[in-house]
Amino acid sequence: MVPSVAVLLAWMIVPLVMTVWFSFQRYNLIDPSMTGFAGIDNYRFLVTDPDFWVSLENTLLLVGSVLIVTVGLGTLLAVLFNQPFPGRNIARVLAISPFFVMPTVSALIWKNLLMHPIYGVFGTLASSVGMQPVDWFADYPLASVIAIVSWEWLPFALLILLTAVQSLDHEQREAARMDGAGPIAQFVFITLPHLSRAIGVVIMIETIFLLTVFAEIFVTTSGGPGNATTNLAFLIYARALLQYDIGGASAGGVVAIVLANIVAFFLVRSIARRLEI
Amino acid sequence: MATLTLRDLRKSYGSFEVIKGVDLAIADREFVVFVGPSGCGKSTLLRMIAGLEEITAGELDIDGKVVNRVGPADRGLAMVFQSYALYPHMTVRQNMGFALRLARVPKAERDRKVNEAARVLQLEPYLDRRPKDLSGGQRQRVAIGRAIVRQPKVFLFDEPLSNLDAALRGQMRMELLRLHEALKATMIYVTHDQIEAMTMADKIVVLQAGRVEQVGSPLDLYHHPANLFVAGFIGSPRMNMMPVTAAVVGDAAVTVGLVSGQQIAVPASGGATRPGDALTLGIRPEGLHIDPAGPILVTVSLVERLGGLTLLHVKAAGDQDLTVQIEGGDPTRAHEQIRLAIDPAACHLFDKAGQALPRPARHTLAA
């Protein structure tokens, strides 16, 4: 076991240490003369930059909204897809397939084929009923990104929650029926508590990936208009590869690591407690 | 107060009929057991009564009202499931009070009813535990408690004891009987275990392949089985079956010839049987005795000594396996040759179609 642990440790430690190291360095890609220890300057510039706080806010908004949409819709769809209806298997495959489309492609499809005010399906639908087409990425940039990311992650939530719904003991549901529970009461008192563990798993896994959403933003809005859709991941990218400020980007990276660890700590703890039940 | 009437009840899945017309009357406070081999439709029949399965054809009356279209919660029934089906995220108290909570019974009354049921079932110390912290027997009692608090007209049990070990099963049988007496309720109980059926039932309904084979009291079925299936299914160890030929047929007795050549006069009315017809002679293991002057020569193949009883598994002429039950101990050992005598009054005769020839003398205990 020792060699594999050593490799894994190096795999993790080297980039982490380098990020921390760079975050205390003056390091600019287009100005090799800027070198040397920067102290906490990089961090000071970061926290005094209004973009940083906006990006934090955007990150949390994005993660929170997508979680609410995917878990909420995913639970309802899971219960729906568990009911027998003609063509259920085909419907299940269709509902799950967005997960197989890579983020860049789905972002491009949403941007150019669906949400574009002139060529997009939504725009055409709106004009066909006499309404003004909406320029989604200009008027509702963050909401549009949230919609795209939710569409990508809904299948994942649906998949996990559907298997959980299927594992519900049917005698339990029948017992509830005998006890006088209608469909809504069965959902609230039997299905939802049964799903709580699976919902916890979905939230944890999705959060880890949603904190680092990048491709969708890069392809559709490039963080704009202004900083309306800049999340932490995009801010780091912009610092490093648009402003060539590796030191500042590394400081942002360290903040992202800390943020991810805080979230992970609470999530793992709450999931571990659930698993005991 | 609850009587049930089943009139030509049928259930089909597509073109496949699983319940093929069941007629049955269940009296108030009766303990009725549906028994039969697996796949005979007994659980389906129970679920049809519960309202969990739709009734394809026929009529189900509870207290004289047709309830075919009434939902499971509104039939006034409570069911105990094989897997107990307790709600894992609720405490025992919440499990038992769930139906009352859904019915918007005030909390004080709910607590009173739950506490009362917990007292009856000796569950008071466990009220705030979750099902996973309970033993199998305790979970079973919670499932029963959940049924009791609803004060149903009829209790339905779907193989409730099959997940328990043998000792606990015997104990729970007694508890259920006690409960039946205390609650004065009608109970319908499904099992594949004929011992449960024999010990608990007021009335046994033997089912096979979606049909009722016979309905009667336990001793009625034991002493007067209507056909070969019931004769073989009720009673443990199983009834011995031997092929015989009718020799002299009368209204009070039928003389039959065994494979070995001996003749026995069995008290039964011959009916349409003609001399020379092939019949089946059924004799329960306790109807055979060791008798040095007996007509049947057998070789002992296996001896089971249960202390109070001894079971001899023997082979008779024509490779016929028989079981003999002897009270107390018996020195007979395997591979010995012994002679057996048959008590003619304990014999049953079945015709070619498997139907019993009626026995003129009813057993004194068989109602």
Distance N terminus to C terminus of chain B?
24 Å
* Helix content bin of chain B: 10-25%
Architecture of the largest domain in chain B in CATH?
A: 3-Layer(aba) Sandwich
Low-confidence stretches of chain B: none
**How would you sum up the major sheet of chain A?**
none
DSSP helix count of chain A? 13
Strand content of chain A: under 5%
Query: How are helices and strands ordered from N to C of chain B?
Result: EEEHEEEHHHEHEHEEHHEEEEEEEEEE
pLDDT under 50 segments of chain A (min length 5)? none
Give the beta-strand count of chain B.
Answer: 20
- Give a count of the beta strands of chain A, DSSP E runs of length 2 or more: 0
Any idea what the CATH superfamily of chain A is called?
A: MetI-like
Order of helices and strands of chain A: HHHHHHHHHHHHH
**What is the percentage of strand-forming residues of chain B?**
25-35%
Oligomer: heterodimer
Strand order of the largest sheet of chain B: 6-7-8-3-9-10
Query: Largest interface, counted with CB-CB under 8 A?
Result: A-B, 18 and 26 residues
